[in-house]
């Protein structure tokens, strides 16, 4: 029985495309971590990408990645799935997130055959255009994104979605985020 329970555990690596502490996209990840405590068989761990250097293959010496990059790659490799919180910059993903994706894609690709989901918060379309670019990259990376539900949260539309520290406070958005996590867990279990 214990082996079956261990087999059904889904470990999610959570990456935020904004480096700001009070970012609403990081707030989505904090909420996902909190929500995961109420979902049997799911753990969400925040993976910090702020210390990753810009991708530069000159930094790979004798086949060895820089220490920060290798630590990041090992966390992604150990995860069953990935949750991206992607702000939208110029209709695409942010530079820090793209940088992390690129480091993980270098041989051997640590993203391959993992379930993935993307959520976002922002103005207008709620960061939704970043979803499309991230999904395009996911094709090459062999990531398997959930199709639905989607969470593109217009953070400026009433009611208030986040408090002053960037924490998600809107009950409807929290419920939507939980549905994303459940769909991600379901896909990850299918891919295991």
From TrEMBL:
Pfam families associated with the record: FMN_red
Which residue numbers delimit the NADPH-dependent FMN reductase-like domain? 11-155
Reaction(s) this enzyme catalyzes, per UniProt = a quinone + NADPH + H(+) = a quinol + NADP(+); a quinone + NADH + H(+) = a quinol + NAD(+)
Q: Which InterPro entries match?
A: Flavoprotein-like_sf, FMN_Rdtase-like_dom, NAD(P)H-dep_reductase
Query: Among the entry's GO cellular component annotations, what is one?
Result: cytosol
Task: Write the Enzyme Commission number(s) for this entry.
Answer: 1.6.5.2
What are this entry's molecular-function GO terms? FMN binding; NAD(P)H dehydrogenase (quinone) activity
Origin, by domain of life? Eukaryota
PANTHER family named in the record = CHROMATE REDUCTASE (PTHR30543), NAD(P)H-DEPENDENT FMN REDUCTASE LOT6 (PTHR30543:SF21)
| Protein name listed in UniProt | NAD(P)H dehydrogenase (quinone)
Q: Which organism is it from?
A: Genlisea aurea
User: What lineage is this protein's organism placed in?
Assistant: Eukaryota, Viridiplantae, Streptophyta, Embryophyta, Tracheophyta
